[in-house]
Amino acid sequence: MATSRPQQPFVREPATAEWYGRLAQRLGIAVSALALAVAAVTGAAIALEAGSAGTALSRLVTVAAADPATLPALAVACHYGLVGVVVGCWFLGLGFILTGFFE
Hints:
This protein is mainly α. It is built from three helices and no strands.
């Protein structure tokens, strides 16, 4: 009588923490890409309004550091686009930590 081999489980099922890590990475990439597109388009519009390169750079730095309540609508969109890039990068880093630490 031949002995039967035990059933092999799936090759490599990801653990729950690894699954959440990959989810956080994908969320971070999506949020960062969308926010970067918003920040780039609105930032370019602000830079074109400013005229010279020095004035445009100083205005963009002011927009990034200013309180959104004091900014015009286009600058608020740029400000929150930059905040979105930071949040997306945070999720991306969290995903790398989860997948790397629990792997």
